[in-house]
Specification:
Rossmann fold, binds magnesium ion, 23% strand, 30% helix, binds zinc ion, Ribonucleotide Reductase Protein R1, domain 1, 3 domains, alpha/beta, OB fold (Dihydrolipoamide Acetyltransferase, E2P), 6-stranded mixed β-sheet, globular, 10 helices, binds guanosine-5'-triphosphate
């Protein structure tokens, strides 16, 4: 039995980098997962530290999964420390409702977060994203403004990601793979035209893969825009909004959902203009989603 790290998952195979080996395609052992995992409804994830053994056909079997320090369902990955939320300012247009949704999931998972805006070279006519992004800085999120095409802002992102294990998340076509390529000159992950993709609903990146970067790892992932609040309780939601969360302790009732309860400090803060009303609106929309999910199951 040997130890290793799953760096890629594709078509039912897990690609394990044996401990002590330098990253690179030649070093990877192509493994199947042992049947026992399926029985227990767990599956290995990229980022998992595993025990594996070699089989006769030159492949391997993942036998055991090490304890995880973090776990995301979308994108599916374990043991990352930092989530890099990637949004383009145009093509597709900046979407702060989706950003808030991603942030809720990341806060719940307990990861550090940075927000990267891409494609600033497109200079959209609608510059509303500028005023929409500033409040996130005040909430304590690091924000990077980049153009992979013009190599702007790339060094700052690289410096932030060095030595950590980070995962990229964002809609299809925002430029995740392009950004990873920009971070690592010489790397050529496939990227594709957005116009073709919109027509056919095409996703260019189809698997999760960890790529070595300056003493750390960065995971490129397939794009997605649908996210369900499957694991979140209504009572937990405001904890995942850093700004709402600061007002919640002053609410009259413990367990206040900040909706129609009397003496709600969150609603008061919105009314006084201290708390961004769009953040509160997204909060209410997500709260409704969670309650509706409860009704369905
Ligand atoms: N103008 C401009 N275009 C960019 C930039 N970054 C990426 N693109 C283009 O945006 C399109 C999508 O880029 P990808 O990197 O494939 O996007 P992705 O987020 O990896 O997409 P999925 O793999 O489907 O999730 C490509 O045509 C890129 O050339 C940028 O900084 N500026
Ligand atoms: Mg991609
Ligand atoms: Zn309240």
């Amino acid at each position: 039995m040997a130890k290793g790290l799953i760096v890629k998952a594709l078509s039912g195979y897990y690609y394990v980098l044996p401990e002590g080996q330098a990253p690179g395609t030649e070093a990877l052992v192509q493994c199947r997962a042992r049947g026992i995992f399926k029985k227990h409804k767990v599956s290995p994830l990229v980022g998992d530290r595993v025990d594996f053994s070699l089989t006769e056909n030159g492949e391997g079997t993942v036998d055991a999964i090490g304890e995880r320090t973090s776990e995301l369902i979308r994108p599916p990955i374990a043991n990352t420390e930092l989530a890099v939320l990637v949004f383009s300012v145009q093509e597709p247009a900046f979407n702060d409702q989706l950003l808030d949704k991603f942030l809720v999931h990341i806060e719940k998972a307990g990861l550090d977060t940075v927000i990267v805006l891409t494609k600033t070279d497109l200079k959209p006519e609608d510059t509303e994203w500028v005023s929409r992004i500033e409040p996130y800085r005040r909430m304590g999120y690091d924000i990077f403004i980049t153009s992979s095409k013009q190599m702007e802002g790339i060094d700052a992102v690289r410096a932030r990601l060095s030595g950590t294990v980070s995962v990229f998340a964002g809609q299809s076509g925002v430029g995740k793979s392009s950004l990873v390529n920009a971070l690592l000159p010489g790397l050529k992950l496939a990227t594709d035209e957005i116009s073709m993709r919109l027509g056919r609903g095409k996703h260019t990146t189809r698997h999760v893969e960890l790529i070595p970067l300056n003493g750390g790892w960065v995971a490129d992932t397939p794009g997605f825009s649908q996210l369900d609040f499957l694991e979140l309780e209504a009572e937990e939601l405001s904890d995942c909004f850093r700004d709402l969360h600061t007002y919640a302790p002053a609410c009259r009732f413990r367990g206040c959902l900040h909706h129609k309860e009397p003496g709600c400090a969150v609603r008061a803060a919105v009314e006084q203009g201290e708390l961004a009303s769009w953040r509160y609106e997204h909060y209410l929309q997500f709260l409704t989603e969670i309650k509706e999910r409860k009704r369905r199951y």
